[in-house]
Amino acid sequence: MAEADFDVNQQFEAEPRVHDYVVDADVHVTPPPTFWAEYLSPQFRDLAPKVESEGEFDYIVFEGQRRAVNLMASQAGRTFDKYKNAGKLADQRLGGWMVDKRLEDMDRDGIDKAVCFGGGPLGTGNLELYLDSFDAFNRWQSDFCADSNGRIYACAYLTTVDVDQTIAGVKAAKARGDVAVNLPAFPQSVSQFTKEGAVWQAMTGDPQGARQYRDPEFDKLWATLVDLDMPVTFHLGARISRFRDKTNFLCDLPMGKPAMLEMINIMLYSGVFDRFPTLRVGLIESGVGWIPWACEYMDRAWEMQRHWTECAIKHPPSFYFDQNVYASFIEDPVGVELRHKPGAKNIMWSSDYPHSETTFPHSHKAIARNFQGVPKDEMAWILSGCAEKFFGLK
User: Fold this and answer.
1) Which terminal Cβ of the chain has fewer Cβ within 10 Å, N or C?
2) Tens of pLDDT along the chain (394 residues)?
3) Does the keyword Chloroplast apply (predicted)?
């Protein structure tokens, strides 16, 4: 079938469910770039990206650059052999930004509720515009979720340039009805801010920066999250996937999963979870099969090395994973098999709609593959109960 004849918004027949209630712990939105002109603060709206079309591509025009629309965040509706890296906005499935279409896709795919992770910010060299774009994207996403009849919930992406600003973002998210906030893997550094790295710094922060989440300045952030009963998530470690680079993309992709352990350990070994025992932290899209191995290794290493390192945490590392840390996976039968190992108590399933790893429109087939032989009550915990507890959906 020629690309011109391919309908990314083709309709799919609903497939049989293998479980009667599913909460998707990680979905995404892909709003068209035109939304920025409406949601940015008034003083920045004239600077918003614009869209131009030419030939087989739409282009985003912003701050003197013209770049073809990247599609790797929106492959839902395509078979694997039809994946494409760049194209037109019309090549994206409408459920990425139209809530009625999203709900139709959820119904077809057997998804009852979902937690939505957006993104942004703008890839700008203007720091004030950059910070404002976090708020703009979060407000758009909250509006999207508010129209879902209580089926989709938002996670706000926050900047960590200034802790007081981060706290203000937490409070604003709570007031909008968002159920979580997402932080970059490491605190951001204004000194390292560049236009070229702006978007990735929202995900990774500055791994080599002087500030770390173990520092006392962040305790007031953890206290605010606990007081508001808001969980915090990380969606990427220090490793990024070069998603425009077909040579390195497959090499990079798996490396970003276990890399999320680093920021958890920075918090864990410095006693953050002793000081804030009810703080909930989620590793989203991390996969989970590596966690039991990591916890076994960390428990053993801590027991051997804790005296000379003067590590004063009260419990072995696996204890904090079972108490404070949650993680989501898309397809990870090894992780499901190891669900009873120390540290693996809190695992959640997700479809990653509409990204390139999504199980849509065959999510229940994927669930069947991953949960062979798992008792119904244990399936229920991983497919709904754990996410409901983590995000406070009950």
Assistant:
1) C
2) 445 568 999 999 999 999 999 999 999 999 999 999 999 999 999 999 999 999 999 999 999 999 999 998 899 999 988 989 899 999 999 999 999 999 999 999 999 999 999 877 999 999 999 999 999 999 999 999 999 999 999 999 999 999 999 999 999 999 999 999 999 999 999 998 999 889 888 889 999 899 999 999 999 999 999 999 999 999 975 567 666 667 766 665 656 778 899 999 999 999 999 999 999 999 999 999 999 999 999 999 999 999 999 999 999 999 999 999 999 999 999 999 999 999 999 999 999 999 999 999 999 999 999 999 999 999 999 999 999 999 999 7
3) no
In degrees to the nearest 10, what's the CA dihedral of 161, 167, 169, 171?
Answer: 180
Query: Which residue type does 373 have?
Result: G
How far is the C-alpha of 269 from the C-alpha of 265, rounded, in Å? 6
Two tokens at 236? 């990427």
CATH of 3-31+94-391, one of 1.20.1440.170, 3.30.2310.20, 3.20.20.140, 3.40.50.300: 3.20.20.140
pTM above 0.90, yes or no: yes
Distance CA 44, CA 175 (A): 24
